[in-house]
Amino acid sequence: MEYELIAELTREWVDEAGEMLRESLKNTSLKIEEKTNPSDLVTEMDRAIEAFFVEKIQKHFPDHKIFGEEGTYDEINDLSGFIWIIDPIDGTLNYVKQKSNFCSMIALFKDGEGVLSFINDVIHEDVYFGIKGKGVFCNDRRLETVPPHSLNEGLIAISTKMVTNESEKTKEVVQEALGVRLIGSAGLEMIQVLTNRVSAYITNDLSAWDIAQGYMLATELGLTFTRRDGTPINLMEKNPILVANSQAHKEIVSKFVKE
């Protein structure tokens, strides 16, 4: 099956999952659990959406491997073959506390290269997606390539942990940019870079399910997506990431390269 046909099928799943999530916000007795700390939450909907995607993948692509945040793992020792990477709710704390500012993400990689990706901004009903070699879209609108520009010409997005544990390097970046914006969802932060609302997104360590979808879309759109020191992303481990237009990326890497 060609990637365009797989993307059409995946879009149906993404739309259905988005409707499930919007409907779930009416539930006043949502089951919520802590994972590693009080701000790291998982809900019954995280698990339900992941199970929904897994059921669809296993039905249509039984030979593909799956890597999901909420525990759906095939034995993955390397990135060979087809691997689906799922984050059912990115920004679960926002989903619980704000009922907004969260997204649902799924991507397909082949031999370590992203071939299609979807990030669903659920509340705004904006689905960002890309297919290898075909561009990146928001719903039916094709996104334009972000022109290179300096750090001091735009805003930046930074993870909360980087702000609360401000290093001298982080301060330098913040002071050079026009300002900082935080959302609390890696998927939505990456969309901000894709759409040129911020010039860069910088984080501490994130797992594959947090970044794979944005990694594919940013690469397809011609943005630069690396570890914070400019070295390549490795989806087999956690990565402190930097996604930005090419000029801002160079300027930010120059500050973090010696950390």
Automatic annotation (TrEMBL):
<dbReference type="GO" id="GO:0046872">
    <property type="term" value="F:metal ion binding"/>
</dbReference>
<feature type="binding site">
    <location>
        <position position="89"/>
    </location>
    <ligand>
        <name>Mg(2+) 1</name>
    </ligand>
</feature>
<feature type="binding site">
    <location>
        <position position="210"/>
    </location>
    <ligand>
        <name>Mg(2+) 1</name>
    </ligand>
</feature>
<dbReference type="InterPro" id="IPR000760">
    <property type="entry name" value="Inositol_monophosphatase-like"/>
</dbReference>
<dbReference type="GO" id="GO:0007165">
    <property type="term" value="P:signal transduction"/>
</dbReference>
<dbReference type="GO" id="GO:0008934">
    <property type="term" value="F:inositol monophosphate 1-phosphatase activity"/>
</dbReference>
<dbReference type="InterPro" id="IPR020583">
    <property type="entry name" value="Inositol_monoP_metal-BS"/>
</dbReference>
<protein>
    <submittedName>
        <fullName>Inositol monophosphatase family protein</fullName>
    </submittedName>
</protein>
<dbReference type="GO" id="GO:0006020">
    <property type="term" value="P:inositol metabolic process"/>
</dbReference>
<feature type="binding site">
    <location>
        <position position="90"/>
    </location>
    <ligand>
        <name>Mg(2+) 2</name>
    </ligand>
</feature>
<keyword id="KW-0479">Metal-binding</keyword>
<dbReference type="Pfam" id="PF00459">
    <property type="entry name" value="Inositol_P"/>
</dbReference>
<keyword id="KW-0378">Hydrolase</keyword>
<feature type="binding site">
    <location>
        <position position="87"/>
    </location>
    <ligand>
        <name>Mg(2+) 1</name>
    </ligand>
</feature>
<feature type="binding site">
    <location>
        <position position="69"/>
    </location>
    <ligand>
        <name>Mg(2+) 1</name>
    </ligand>
</feature>
<keyword id="KW-0460">Magnesium</keyword>
